[in-house]
Amino acid sequence: MKRIISFFLVISVVLLSGVSAVHAENGAGTAPDARDLPSDVLLRDELPDSTDMPDSLSPGGKPGSSGESAMGLGGGSAVGSTGGPAEEHDGEPGERGRLDRIDYSADDLYEAVSILVPGSTHYSIKEMSDPARIVIDLYDTDVPGGQGIIPADGTYVKRIRYAQFTEKIARVVLDVSEGYDFSIVRTDTGLAAYVSGYPGPGELRENGVIPLGPGYRISVSGSGSDETVEIELGSYYDYSITRLTDPERILVTIPEADVYSAAKRFDHDGEWISSVEYAAAGRSGAEITIGLTAQFQYSAELSDGKLRISFSWPSYRNIIYRNSADRVYFLLKKAALTKGTKDLKPLYTASYDKSGMTWTVTFPTRNADLGEGALDINDLYLKSFEVRNNGDGTTSLIFNGRPGNSYLVYTRDSGDTAITVMRPAAKGDKIVVIDAGHGGTATGARYGDLYEKDLNLDIARRLEALLNSKGVKTYLIRSDDSNVDNYERAYIANMLGAALYLSIHNNASPKSSVRGTMTLCYPSTKSGFTGRQFAQIVQRHMVAALDTVDLKVRLRPDLIVLRETYMPAALAEVAFLTNSSDREKLRDESFRQTAAEALCSSVLEALDEVA
Q1: Which helix (H) or strand (E) holds 536?
Q2: Is the pLDDT of residue 5 over 70?
Q3: Residue 223: its pLDDT value, please?
Q4: What is the mean pLDDT of residues 452-476?
Q5: Is the dihedral of CA 445, 449, 454, 455 positive or negative?
Q6: Mean pLDDT highest for which of 1-10, 144-153, 223-232, 552-561?
Q7: Cα separation, 261 vs 243, whole angstroms
Q8: Which of 161, 179, 355, 450 could form a disulfide with 173 if both were Cys (CB 3.0 to 4.6 A apart)?
Q9: Are residues 360 and 490 in the same domain?
């Protein structure tokens, strides 16, 4: 059975047929007198500064900020979280708004609060805790009826309070019970808030639906190759789909959705679709992330206000795309597109189209078993990728890219070809390449369960975070446990036009008594700031910070990543896995953090020296 409460805020508004008004302290259908209302119409931590507050809303005391929070973008309910400002939403420009009426109704699914506010085009939402409540601010909006309380006594909505919060802002507060979930939807006459209990993962999985209010939802239907995601978020006019990897997923962005909601997610556990997640985006957008079990091609169709997304296997084979980190690349299994290492010889021809954005590589079909087909991508680097059989014994790879892209094609010792997509440094930019040594099957030194490749990556990630926090642009050669050939590392740095190259390693020795820190460099005879000077800076900072034995700077003309890079390059050997004292230090997270901090100081000092 549906329960309805209507409350009029302006005397001249006529009751709608079938909707009954209820008394709110001083009678139905009339604007309440603020003097007749309880003193907590606006709770203390909801009050504006006294200088901005009308006299009629001055119960005394200053506002507090405890419990204010922004809408969370992660999974789960945002109740009780703390954080930044409210999410704001813009509408079409219009005249000053007027809060005319608030309706409350309840049925088996939702408790609905309908806010009639003609002329209002801009609003914001935030959640507050202790007690739990949803706060809706209507900008450039008047409350002719003053302030008041509407009792609801629902399962989740206990009461609704409204007032002229500041001269420019009308505030509506929904006092709610803990464990609530909500969505805010634009309507032709204002806004509607839908409140319900926050469903558990089991309920969501069973239904395969993210409910966002009557007529608004995200659902999954079908199975296997017939699995489809259907998105109903109102009368939106634009959307974009971006491919993300590691894990495989696509991100659907709707910049002007009619719905604003707390983040929601369900695990689908399908053959093709693994999960679906909703999150608010910016002032008025929505983001839907669809988790996939493999790198599928997708297609989208918009009709009748519903966006349907379906999936299919790409018709090409032996190709995988990765874009989750700095190094964006394609890996072509058992494909020979180059020959050699230092003297790299292409086994292909390549050209750009007139726009300079589409790059095509053509090679003998016998050099790779790739088939043909296409992959939509739409990320920062590529719009799409296609494998095309030309019918003359050649195959073309077509990269429909973004402005400024460069491509490195390199066939590794394993027989696989990596095609790295990158954007070289712009004039005046200083990019620091951070190379976590080894990776994948190249483990480096090992002692028991301690692998050098893992320690190198841990320190590299910490260094990247520190440098980024200082505003330094970085490029991490590998961000996971993957193989990258040494020549490939050097060629990537050169193509980027990096300012510095820092390779991070840890050491080993046949003699377990050997311990300490050393830094390696190439014996360059170039003028200006060189790798040797960079290595001296690195060694000085590391020894001072780590309190390790100083094994000095060593010249290594044989190391590829130092010899083949064009910029000042250094290789830091932080400590020895084969020495018990150094090994215990390396196991300590604080030691690895200190190493990263020392390397950060080294890079910052060196950047001041780089021309």
Answers
A1: helix 531-546
A2: no
A3: 83
A4: 98
A5: negative
A6: 552-561
A7: 23
A8: 161
A9: no
User: Could you give the C-alpha distances from 97 to 8, 57, 117, 405, in angstroms and in order?
Assistant: 16, 20, 6, 48
Annotate 39-72 with DSSP letters as a single string.
TTSS-GGG---GGGS-GGG--SS----TTEEPPP
Determine the 3-state secondary structure of 23 from DSSP: coil
Helices 589-609 and 531-546 pack at an angle, to 10 degrees, of 150
CA angle 520, 525, 527 (to 5 degrees): 110
Residues 450 and 534 reside in one and the same domain: yes
Question: Residue 326 sits in which domain range?
Answer: 319-422
**Dihedral of CA 119/121/122/123: which sign?**
positive
Cα 349 from Cα 343, distance rounded (Å) = 17
How far is Cα 576 from Cα 517, in angstroms, rounded to an integer?
8
Quickly state the pLDDT bin for 308 (edges 50, 70, 90): very high
With CA atoms as reference, report the closest residue to 348 among 386, 406, 396, 408. 396
How buried is 230 (Cβ within 10 angstroms: 0-12 exposed, 13-18 middle, 19+ buried)? middle
Sequence-distant (6+) residues with CB within 8 A of 484 are 327, 418, 439, 440, 477, 478
Q: pLDDT for 399-438, tens place per residue?
A: 999 999 999 999 999 999 999 999 999 999 999 999 999 9
Give yes or no for a contact between 125 and 89, defined as CB atoms under 8 angstroms apart. yes
SS3 (DSSP) at 457: helix
Q: Which is more confidently placed, 28 or 227?
A: 227
Same-domain pairing of 180 and 208: no
Please tell me whether residues 330 and 439 are part of one structural domain: no
| Whether pLDDT at 291 is above 70 | yes
- 106 and 17 assigned to the same domain: yes
Q: Which two tokens stand for residue 403?
A: 């402005």
Provide the pLDDT for residue 69: 24
Q: Is the pLDDT of residue 347 over 90?
A: yes
Q: What is the pTM of this model?
A: 0.80
Are residues 396 and 388 in contact, defined by beta-carbon separation less than 8 angstroms?
yes
Shared-domain flag, residues 447 and 517: yes
Per-residue pLDDT tens for 553-578?
999 999 999 999 999 999 999 999 99
Phi-psi region of 323 (alpha: psi -120 to 50; beta: other; left: phi over 0): alpha
What domain count does the chain have?
4
Whether 439 and 300 map to the same domain: the answer is no
421 CB burial (10 A radius; 0-12, 13-18, 19+): buried
Q: Are strands 500-507 and 431-436 parallel, antiparallel or unpaired?
A: parallel
Dig out the tokens for 428 from the structure: 């005046």
pLDDT in tens, 274-284: 999 998 887 67
Among 170, 197, 224, the domain-final residue is 197
